[in-house]
Amino acid sequence: MQAFGPESTAVDVLAGARLDGKRILITGASTVLEVETIRALAGHGAQVIGADQDLDKARAALAGAGCAIDLVPLDLGSLASVRSCADIVSAGGEPLDLLICNSGLVACPESRSVDGLERQFAFNHLGHFLLVNRLAPLLRPGSRVVILSSPAHRFADVDFDDPNFEHGAYDPWVAYGRASTAKILFAVEFDRRHQRRGIRAAAANPGAVRTEHSRHVTSENAPPNWPTEWKTVPRGAATTVWAGLIADPDEVGGRYCEDCRVAAITDDRDARTGVQRFAVDPQRARALWVRSEALVGERY
Question: Which residues carry out catalysis?
Fold first, then answer.
């Protein structure tokens, strides 16, 4: 299999691949990274469904990229909206081959979701947790789930006792770190639960890419070990499609991927690459699953 790396683009990764007959859902369809991912997938024959909160904005962004795909409404910060989106996608009973949990918030000011949950944890993790589990019956053997996360996971482990910052001062980077760690742990546990069905899950770090979601990140407020180099959008989309379609499923299942490879596990909080050991700990992954079920009010 061809080796790819940090300079690879999504088009490089998919070179020669045909995705005809593949049905893929991606959360988000209006930012540059989401649109680039969709463009690469649709350009190789996949049927892509984009789930986005602002469908008019998504249509305009996709039209500018020459993409015409199906769109469904989704506000990841609303559990009711997530359930409605899952119902729409599931209505026809058509199977899915890949779920890409792309959309997310980055280090935003403190706020609550409509369900009263800390917004970054609700939007980045719980919304995807609910959506993926509700769509899981549509996944068939050979399908995959790719959950985008971030090197910000090194800033904070999940706090099971205080997920909403009710007992501690809010810090946007700590909140983003907790949500990023949760997304990795979700991939670990979803993979464990579903690999016997031939369905795999992986977490993917696209790298530091300038999108609308990173509008709160500045050189003044970024932590000292935040990536200093920004990736181009085509390179940012590469690891997602590599983990979802090209890499060996046994290689990436339950793992954290970056630069089109499986990341090394590290205990160094100052490391700029790799995945922190606590973010792939299977016991913490199982504990988060149970806590997430309680927060969304559903069991799987």
Answer: 176
Collect contacts of 42-48 with beta carbons under 8 A, ≥24 apart: 42/67, 42/69, 43/11, 43/14, 44/14, 44/17, 44/18, 44/19, 45/18, 45/19, 45/20, 45/21, 46/19, 46/20, 46/22, 47/21, 47/22, 47/23, 48/24
Interatomic CA distance for residues 169 and 103, integer angstroms: 26
Domains, the chain:
10-296 (3.40.50.720)
Cα 212 off chain centre by: 16
Q: Please tell me the distance from the alpha carbon of residue 287 to that of residue 228, in angstroms, as a whole number.
A: 33
Alpha-carbon distance of 121 to 86, in angstroms, equals 20
Three-class secondary structure assignment of 134-159:
HHHHHEEEEEEEEEECCHHHHHCCCC
Kindly report, residue by residue over 125-167, the tens digit of the pLDDT.
Answer: 999 999 999 999 999 999 999 999 999 999 999 999 999 999 9
Alpha-carbon distance 158 to 33, whole Å? 26
Choose among 258, 276, 127: nearest CA to 204: 258
Task: Write the pLDDT tens digit of every residue in 98-119.
Answer: 999 999 999 999 999 999 999 9
